[in-house]
Amino acid sequence: MKRLLTLALLLGLALAQPKELRLYTWTEYIEPAIVTDFEKATGLKVRISYYESNEELLAKLQAGGVSQYDVIVPSDFIIPSMIQLGLLRPLDKSKIPNLKNLDPKFANPPFDPSNTYTVGYLWGTVGLMYRTDVFKTPPTSWAVLFDLKEQKGAFTLMDSQREMLGIGLRYIGQSVNSTDPASVKKVIDLMLSVKRSSNFKGFQGGVSATKLLLGNQAVAAVVYNQDALRTAAGNPKYSFTIPKEGSTLFLDNLAIPAKAPNPEAAHRFINFILDAKIGARLANYQNSATPNAAAKPLMKPELLKNPAVWPTDEQMKVLEFILDQGKNNRLYDEAWTQIKSR
Predict the structure, then answer these.
(1) Is 245 part of any known ligand binding site?
(2) What is the pLDDT of residues 11-26, one digit of tens each?
(3) What is the 3-state secondary structure (H, E, C) of 36-57?
(4) Name one GO cellular component term (predicted).
């Protein structure tokens, strides 16, 4: 009798398990065929929702999304805040055997020591996408946006606080992580001046900005390299560059919200993405660099040789990861509010 009760209980628990995985990620940030293959391999239905910035992701989690999604894809600098706010669930590494495929350089990141809460998904840069019929040679400076005399037509800035402030700081000769109030004030004044230009067409997410370029409504835009390369798709009318002043690097990560409805499925998904072949497919589809060491040899050779995907040593000297600044994050929050509201 006890055995029957135990079996009934186990069967009931199995039937009670959600049959779906809810993924909350950036727009157009995973190959649809990879999602289909995961569904076939697991019998789980994947439901995907999208966001356009880390700030939007954080706000959604704080507004109840922490219990609505199973997997999210936050960037490096936002993760310490998520951990501090109790929004992330520690990973059960025994359920992620493919974690061994992670490149050692990404296996113990400063924003999440020992990968307690996150694992690397893709990494890349923020730069300038432009029309080659307008810019006959690659723009060498952010001045083509920030200097009214250098502007050549309509453009957009990135609707992402730390990336855009960081680029402004690099333009005036400072680190993207500077918390010097005088330097941040200079960036505020710079951005407000840019906003007054008739060429300024607003702050846009990466996907929406590239669509404006494709629709001939802009000649340049600040975007993620992945969005630029995937959108251009070999079209010689568009190109991507990192101006000489430098820019930001990013590492996007897979994480599980603290109250995820199906953490078991979340672990299965993370392990699936970390498979070498799946990781290579993901990087090839996104035209992106990957933190998956086992996937890199399987990538398209032309991507491995493309500096827009894998920055050169010289470019890396002027590229910086965005770091969490703790209490000083308030300085960036206030600056961004002033820029967006005035």
Answers:
(1) no
(2) 444 444 569 999 999 9
(3) HHHHHHHCCEEEEEEECCHHHH
(4) periplasmic space
